[in-house]
Write a structure and sequence with these properties.
mainly alpha, 68% helix
Amino acid sequence: PLHQFIIPYIYFLYILWLPFNINRFALLLISFAFGITLDYFTGSAGLHAAPCVLIAYLRPFLLNLLIPQDTTEHSYLEPSIKSMGWAPYSLYVALLTFIHHFLLVLIEWLQFGNFVYFLGKVAATTAVSLLLIFITEMLFFRKAKFRTNKA
């Protein structure tokens, strides 16, 4: 059945939208708390916490690769299409979505009976989640937050 094959998740978008200048320890702690809270309410032990912490750990490295250090990070507060541009933001969201879903499906599945089915589930879930994420970006416009110098 299709409802068991494709299960889109967009809850981790909250982690992707956190400010650029957030402390790494705080980022990991917030992500763990977010994931473990979701695990508590869904009755799964660590299923969502592990992928949330992984994308929180990888997020600063990916942002450093995608954003020129002298421009965007100093004028905008958080990742968005407006602050990063379509291509870097899309790559940022797509990579972290794929990594999140890969680990989530791997932990959920925990067997390698049919690896093609596993990859298909990861790809389908990632594709539908990306579609929903970009629809969310279009429908719910986030006001761009700029850094200002206040003495």
